[in-house]
């Protein structure tokens, strides 16, 4: 397995674990970690928006992300955390 594929599997495992913790245990730290992982992409995307709208849009995006985190259907995810296998 090459490094990139291994890294993607590791990211999938990490995000899946955070998502489960955020949903099932109402773990605010897990939710914050998910948001933090997407922050660079959000900031980069906001440069396409006029400066006077960026902060409002950023807040709206975070609110929407929290809604998605809370409502995401985790039943189809591979939740075999003990082995670390996500294939």
Structural features, described:
The C terminus is likely disordered. The protein is globular, with a radius of gyration of 15 Å. Helix 2 packs antiparallel against helix 3. With 87 residues, the chain is mostly helical. It is 71% helix and 0% strand. The chain starts with a helix and ends in a 16-residue tail after the last helix. The chain has one domain.
Which SSEs are present, and which pair or pack?
Blueprint: H1 3-24, H2 28-46, H3 51-71
Estimated helix fraction: over 70%
Shape: globular
What is the count of distinct domains?
1
- How would a crystallographer describe the biggest sheet? none
Report the average pLDDT across residues: 86
Number of contiguous helices: 3
Structural class: mainly alpha
**What is the H/E string?**
HHH
The stretches of 5 or more residues where confidence is low (pLDDT under 50) are 82-87
Beta-strand segment tally: 0
Distance between the termini: 12 Å
Strand content: under 5%
Alpha-carbon Rg, integer? 15 Å
Entry keywords:
single chain, 87 residues, mainly alpha, 3 helices, disordered C terminus
Short structural summary:
It contains three helices and no strands. With 87 residues, it is an all-alpha fold.
